[in-house]
Amino acid sequence: MSESTPVLRLRKNEERRLKAGHDWIYANEVDTGETPVKSLPAGAAARVEDARGKPLGRALLSPNSLIVGRLYSRDSEQEPSRSFFKKRIEQALALRETLFPAPGYRLVHGEADGLPGLVVDRYDDTLVLQAGTAGMEAHLETVVSALDAVLSPTNIVVRNEAGVRELEDLPLYTRALKGDVPESVTLSENGGRFTAPLREGQKTGWFFDHRAARARMAPLAKDARVLDVFAYCGGWGVQAALAGAREVTGVDSSGLALDYMHRNAELNGVGDRLRTLEGDAVAAMKELIADGEKFDLVILDPPAFIKRRKDFKNGLAGYHAINELAVRLVKPGGYLISASCSMHLPADKLLDVMRASARHIDRALQIIGQEGQGPDHPVQPAMPETAYLKSWFGRLLFRF
Question: Does 2 score more than 70 pLDDT?
């Protein structure tokens, strides 16, 4: 370690969470008298020490964030070198190649793969990256070099459009660091073939995290009339049709997403069973209720309503609103799949939302299953924040 390596000194007893395996360092845990956070360079790899000066590891710095440091190694001498990134990527790749027969998955999932702030999705010979922190942004070129060495893809695209970057004053942009930025990407999932927009789509193009939940949905969709709310490109709805649904209605505010949903339905030979409604989800569900519509299966997969802890109250109200509308659209004996990707909404709170929504219209709710994120989105067990995705599978009946 060079003499110029910055040091992040913690206050007394603030190392306990790190020693238990957590990887984040908050601003109020730092001894700013010893190590003024604001004077440290964004993206630098700092040596982290407890109040007595004992080394705890190395962290990438984000001095303008509430989370000022993210540990990437417990070895205080470990530099964020190309060989370091290459080793971590190879470890991540070994897991995915064990789990999946084809290259369509999340290759790197941030902290859970030992690369905090970095997401990499793989679509055949195209890799799509997101750097969510100043620390990972500063080392992007090294990361790309390591990815190229491990996989030698045709395209390596950085899609840094996430709003979380604005919290650290990082620019929003999309560009290719190798090859081109394809208009769309293709993938296989649960026996279907799909296309997702990349240049103008959401995040890294596709949401691989619900793969296991969508597979679990299949028996509920057979011969069913299905409503897919927040449908995006049809990950749920088109797979419901593939599982034998007789009719699928997709609702989304994005015309582009619904165009891709139709494209995916045609690609899989189920285009004749799909209709779509473009517009606000709440307004669309209210219109369907007013029209007397009922469905055998309703799927709710909204974007995160609670992006920050301070948004909890308003976000929770949003989950209540859509779930109360959804239960009105489920015919007695039908099914509701309710999902949330909000890290700040625990799974038991989402279950409370479903229970209260069913009770609101005097329905009995049976819970028949639960899913989290798929195995290409592993969880770091000391960090509950990494277990962000939850889906409850419920059956709605008249009161017993």
Answer: no
CB 366, CB 330: distance < 8 Å: no
Cβ(127)–Cβ(155) under 8 Å?
yes
Multiple choice CATH, 186-398, 3.40.50.150, 3.90.79.10, 3.30.70.60, 2.60.120.260:
3.40.50.150
Residues sharing a CB contact under 8 Å with residue 364, sequence separation 6 or more, in sequence order: 358, 396, 397, 398, 399, 400
Instruction: Indicate the burial class of 223 (C-beta count within 10 angstroms; 0-12, 13-18, 19 or more).
Output: exposed
- Average pLDDT, integer, range 367-392: 96
Q: Write the pLDDT tens digit of every residue in 22-58.
A: 999 999 999 999 999 888 888 999 999 999 999 999 9
Give me the CATH code for the 7-73 domain, please. 2.30.130.10
Rounded mean pLDDT of the chain?
Answer: 94
Nearest 10 degrees: Cα torsion 175, 177, 179, 183: -20
Spatial strand order of the sheet with 390-398 comes to 274-278, 247-252, 225-229, 295-300, 330-340, 390-398, 363-371
pLDDT in tens, 165-205: 777 778 888 999 999 999 999 999 999 999 999 988 777 88
**DSSP conformational letter for 303:** P
Exposure letters 273-287 (e unless 16+ CB within 10 A, then b): bbebbeeebeebbee
How far is the C-alpha of 372 from the C-alpha of 142, rounded, in Å?
Answer: 32
In this structure, what DSSP letter does residue 170 have? P
Active site residue ranges? 341
pLDDT tens digits, 337-346: 999 999 999 9
